[in-house]
Design a protein that fits this description.
About 40% of the residues lie in helices and about 15% in strands. With about 270 residues, the chain is of the alpha/beta class. It has a 5-stranded parallel sheet, with helices on both faces.
Length: about 270
């Protein structure tokens, strides 16, 4: 059978007993990065004196080779005990894994998914946004109109929305949020469960003043819910592109965002 096994997102203590048992009894381990998985197993052996099978087969399976690997699979491959692990967290959440599950469903292969550490849900609960409905948006496109449209979709979803963002683009995201939704409350979680875990809460501009200059690390961004917007509705960027006086732009933007008109006008003067 196939078992998808979540691994710690930072703190090794978050490994579950079931995860250790599954990893130790595996014949073949499909790994997002075999080096990361081998290091994890070494730590489990040293720290918890876990006994693993003497000969385990490690196969690299990541986003770049996933389609080719699965296209060459035979159901007989799963007559052994197969485990899939990503580098950290729950497989299938912005990581490979779900295509394997789909293969099992279509080919009558028995599979299981173990519960475990996950940055998405940890950050959602830590945000303190009192909203039972949550939308996971994943990673935004890196640049261009696709990124702008995706961010507008996240802001106008009507739900508390969770993003993943790389440290290389976090400053850019804060600038984008400050420009698009200056009054929207957001929550940032850095390096969840690790030694340098940090929480930041406020508007994008407020958070820009709080975060360290060093942005390295894993970041989760939680955006508070606002009234859902029709995808075809006019956005702030649409208004700014119109050849209108700043005061008129400020009035229109305040209508769609709820921002104070004078504060909006003062902000537009600085753009």
């Amino acid at each position: 059978m196939l078992t998808l096994v979540p691994t710690p997102i930072g703190n090794i203590g978050d490994i579950s007993l079931r995860a250790i048992e599954a990893l130790s009894s595996a014949d073949t381990l499909l790994c997002e990065d075999t080096r990361v998985t081998k290091k994890l197993i070494h730590i489990l052996k040293e720290r918890y004196q876990s006994a693993f099978k003497s000969e385990q087969n490690f196969i690299s399976l990541h986003s770049h080779n996933e389609k080719e690997f699965i296209s060459n699979l035979e159901p007989s491959f799963f007559e052994q005990n197969v485990i899939y692990v990503s580098d950290a967290g729950m497989p299938g959440i912005s990581d490979p894994g779900q295509a394997l599950v789909e293969y099992c469903q279509k080919n009558g292969v028995v599979y299981d998914v173990l519960p475990g550490a996950n940055a998405l849900l940890t950050a959602f609960v830590a945000s303190g946004f009192v909203e039972t409905k949550m939308l996971f948006w994943g990673f935004l496109p890196h640049k261009g109109k696709d990124r702008t449209a995706s961010l507008q979709g996240a802001l106008g979803s009507g739900f508390t929305t969770v993003l993943y963002e790389s440290p290389h683009r976090l400053a850019k995201l804060l600038d984008e949020l400050s420009h698009a939704e200056p009054t929207r409350e957001i929550f940032l979680a850095k390096e969840l469960t690790k030694k340098y875990q940090r929480y930041y809460f406020g508007t994008a501009e407020e958070i820009k003043q709080k975060v360290d200059v060093n942005l390295r690390g894993e970041w989760v961004v939680v955006i508070s819910a606002a009234e859902a917007q029709n995808p075809s509705a006019i956005s702030q960027n649409d208004i700014l592109e119109l050849d209108l006086p700043k005061k008129v732009q400020a009035k229109l933007i305040s209508k769609i965002t709820g921002e104070n008109t004078k504060a909006c006008y003062d902000r537009l003067l600085k753009l």
